[in-house]
Amino acid sequence: MKRILLLGATGSIGLQTVDVIEQHPDKFCLVGIAAGHQADVMQKIIDKHPSIQVAGISDVSKANQLKGVKVFSGTNAMVDCIENCEYDLLVNAVVGFRGLKPTLTSLKKGIDVALANKESLVAGGVLVRKTLHETNTKLYPIDSEHSAIFQSLQGNRNEDVKRLIITASGGSFRDKSRDELSDVTVEQTLKHPNWNMGKRITVDSATMVNKGFEVIEAHYLFDLPYEKIDTVLHRQSIVHSMVEYNDNAIIAQLGSADMRLPIQYALCYPDRPVLKEDHPLDMTKTMDLNFKEMDYVRYPMLKLAYEIGKKEGNLGAVFNGADEQAVQLFLEKKISFLQIEESIEQACKNGKYIENPTIEQLEASDAWARKFVIEYWD
Ligand SMILES: NC(=O)C1=CN([C@@H]2O[C@H](COP(=O)(O)OP(=O)(O)OC[C@H]3O[C@@H](n4cnc5c(N)ncnc54)[C@H](OP(=O)(O)O)[C@@H]3O)[C@@H](O)[C@H]2O)C=CC1
Ligand SMILES: CC(=O)[C@@H](O)[C@H](O)COP(=O)(O)O
Ligand SMILES: [Mn+2]
Question: Domain 1-deoxy-D-xylulose 5-phosphate reductoisomerase N-terminal, which positions (predicted)?
Answer without folding.
Answer: 4-125
